[in-house]
């Protein structure tokens, strides 16, 4: 990694050395537990550090990719050339009346817990969605008839040039699994959610009910990235896969979950290639059987 020696020396002037890892296996940073090494993994601790790291990448022509907990990500087995910036150390939540001001590295389940503790209603849908606030806004994550667009007021982001921008709800351009964050390559630093006052007991009851549904219906005991595919218009992905008799179908260590056909799971020894081959097999089968195109919801980066 001598080719990055000068770059790392500049990086150490921005972030502490313990927050920089070289040749870091990405399987340690994704919920699928697969992925080859990234050249440099950095975990900034402040907005200022993130801005400076992005500016350094621009100056040095270094490719970078932003992650939270890697819960919606497949890194190919050859790894990622460049830098991964992991935002999980941005982990603060502030409560102001009916607003939650949340840093992008906070887990969604922690946000739902904070909402519950303050008897704030509207965030229950996200109580079991894996991943962090930054990723949830980027993808406009949703479940059980709720989505981020229903509760977000604004977001503080940094653009590709390292400039801080505050975007309101309209400017975020939130659609089905899409946003201005993806469109313009922004990095989410902080999000303000606007909720409404409710009763603690009814909010808790809703969270408990959704938690039980997830535990009953989803293969939470295995590494996965949640729902693998976006929902095609007019169809349910899991139903199409089940009707194609692919439930339980495996390639290598990757398997279509027997519990929920919309999930691909890592049975323990899957490679990224196994998972990607299984995704392609499912896509081809559904296209052949129903003339329906399935598009992955999960992000795919890196090289073979």
Which key phrases capture this entry?
304 residues; Uridine Diphospho-n-acetylenolpyruvylglucosamine Reductase, domain 2; Uridine Diphospho-n-acetylenolpyruvylglucosamine Reductase, domain 1; 3 domains; five-stranded antiparallel beta sheet; 8 helices; 19 strands; globular
Question: What is the topological layout?
Answer:
Layout: H1 5-11, E1 20-25, E2 37-42, H2 47-60, E3 64-67, E4 73-75, E5 80-86, E6 93-96, E7 99-103, H3 108-117, E8 120-121, H4 133-139, E9 142-143, E10 146-147, E11 152-158, E12 164-168, H5 180-184, E13 187-194, E14 196-197, H6 200-217, E15 224-227, H7 237-243, E16 250-251, E17 254-256, E18 263-266, H8 272-290, E19 299-301
Parallel strand pairs: 2-5, 3-5, 4-19
Antiparallel strand pairs: 1-2, 6-7, 7-13, 8-14, 9-10, 11-12, 11-13, 15-18, 16-17, 17-18
EC number: 1.3.1.98
Protein name: UDP-N-acetylenolpyruvoylglucosamine reductase
Domain FAD-binding PCMH-type: 33-198
